Amino acid sequence: MNKALFLDRDGIINIDxxxxxxxxxxDFVKGIFDICRSANEKGYIIIVITNQSGIGRGKYSETDxxxxxxxxxxxxxxxxxxxxxxxxxxxxxxxxxDDYLMQCECRKPAPGMIIKAAQDHxxxxxxxxxxxxxxxxxxxxxxxxxxxxxLVASQYQDKVEIKAQKVDSVTQVEPYIV
Length: 178
Fold this sequence. Notes:
5 helices; alpha/beta; Rossmann fold; single chain; 178 residues
């Protein structure tokens, strides 16, 4: 079984400018390459788990998202870091168009994307880590059975009680990658 470092995208990998789908607007978060390099060295595979309701809302297409994702993965590779896979949910339960308007099992806080990644890549979730910046990230990780959950302080500090390590920035995550 593999252990994984699961990463939310917007707010963890890149600065969350809202509906980021073009590389011109994709600014990497300070410290993300160092954390991922360290995780790779410690035997973790890296998986990105991201809600992308901008697709469902018609703000950008799945093709736009996939092109940006390929560019992002290449940028990590240039830093000597392998992103094993990227899972995304284009749905939204109340504000989306056509087939994207649905309550699904993949949109965080549901654990569907994490469970699918675990099946696809033989991941031991109880030995894995999830880093997110929203309570819904942590709820999805907990529902999937990930014990090491890290919430990076951000603009999304809901008043929900959660069980997670809390840090102010990605640069403070290193001690939790064990």
